[in-house]
Amino acid sequence: MTRSTLLVLGVVGVVALAGVASALDGGGGAGAPGVAAAPPTTTAAAAPATAADAIPIGDIRRLPKPTPGELHGALAVWSTGECLPVAMDLDRLVSTTAGTMRSGCAVWTSPGDRWIALVPLHAQQVYAARAIADRGRDTGLRYTQFDPPTVTVADDGSTASCDGAHVRLAHAGRVTTVRTFPTSNAANDERCTTGAIGASVVRLSEDRRRLVDVVSGRTVRRLARRAPATVVAIATSSDGYVAVADAADGLPSATVYAPSGQVAFTSRRIGHAGAVGELTIAKGGAAVALGTANGWTITNLRNGRTLNSPGGSLVLDVAFSPDGSTMAAATLTGIVFARVADLTPRWFIDFPSQAIGWFPAKLFPGTRTAPIG
């Protein structure tokens, strides 16, 4: 997670937006409904039980809970309100509240799903941790209310952040300021934009044809096509596809480059206007999700289908499955799952959440579990 969230205190602000109309289409179709399942064992806040016949038509709580084996991998979820962490084994459909995980109100994931960066409740520190495996360490970076905040974490735990005037990099216990510039009032400032390719934190070069290491300037990836103006996000999949999002005409679009640097998917609109917070990309590069101050939009780049508020629930974070076939959306109502091919909401887990990550099954903690629902 990719992804992955808005401001630490942003959930309070987005509650009022949770009724945004559903948008699931291939250019403008209607949304799909959903269903409830009991929450995993946790101290996190959960939605009150609702009789099935009292749930409105079109509500995502009408979607079925996945059965064991329908989905695969380890899901890390942070609850709304207290930002408490829960790990879910989707193959067995069990959960655990392992002490190896730290609370997180905002969470970002490295390209290879090895590290996460997170900000705990009531904190300004950015922590870096091995995904699910440990509570991590304070990077020395501070999380400000720059709207939206930009944070990048690489596969070696290197973490970068921007406060609107400085880009700082934390690596091996040291913090280095790698870029300084005058503060701008622009909603999206390209000078703040960083991404990660493997263990390197990168930015766009001045010639707009390369992604270079933020410290050394070394070329990490050459781009077959020059990036458009105002690059607002850079994201890399676990198999090396790189999505570069721009707002050249005020509306975000993305171009995806293959590991060779050749264009895999030409520029396509991927969301609505607004300050961009995060971009994440599925394995294989065929789907991306963009988070803004107005929520997330998921886009299939092959067929143009989109999903942004299933059943009217604002999406606060998105994660793609390790194989790239499925996406999970964290909402104030619960977790919604859809296949990337059609982006039709298909399953629902009753766990209101604001941050989410989807990792290989081997990362699930070996602690005591309880059934999900």
Walk me through the structure.
With 373 residues, the chain is mainly beta. It has one domain (10-371): Neuraminidase. It is built from one helix and 32 strands. The protein has a five-stranded antiparallel β-sheet, with no helix packed on it. The chain has a five-stranded antiparallel β-sheet with strand order 31-4-5-6-32, with no helix packed on it. Strand 16 (200-204) and strand 17 (210-213) form a beta hairpin. The model is unreliable at 1-49 (pLDDT under 50).
Write the layout of secondary structure elements.
Elements: H1 10-14, E1 24-25, E2 34-35, E3 60-61, E4 74-79, E5 85-89, E6 94-96, E7 106-109, E8 115-119, E9 125-130, E10 137-142, E11 150-153, E12 159-162, E13 166-171, E14 174-180, E15 195-197, E16 200-204, E17 210-213, E18 219-222, E19 231-236, E20 242-246, E21 253-257, E22 263-269, E23 276-281, E24 287-292, E25 295-300, E26 306-307, E27 315-320, E28 326-331, E29 335-339, E30 345-349, E31 353-359, E32 370-371
Parallel strand pairs: 2-3
Antiparallel strand pairs: 1-26, 4-5, 4-31, 5-6, 6-32, 7-8, 8-9, 9-10, 11-12, 12-13, 13-14, 15-16, 16-17, 17-18, 19-20, 20-21, 21-22, 23-24, 24-25, 25-26, 27-28, 28-29, 29-30
Assigned CATH architecture = 6 Propeller
Radius of gyration: 19 Å
Strand order of the largest sheet: 1-26-25-24-23
| Top-tier CATH class | Mainly Beta
Query: How many independent structural domains?
Result: 1
Tell the overall outline.
globular
Characterize the largest beta sheet: strand count, sense, and whether it forms a barrel. 5 strands, antiparallel
The amount of helix comes to under 10%
CATH-defined topology: Neuraminidase
- Strand-pairing-aware structural class: mainly beta
Distance between the termini: 25 Å
* Overall number of strands: 32
* Share of residues in strands: 35-45%
Number of helices: 1
Low-pLDDT regions: 1-49
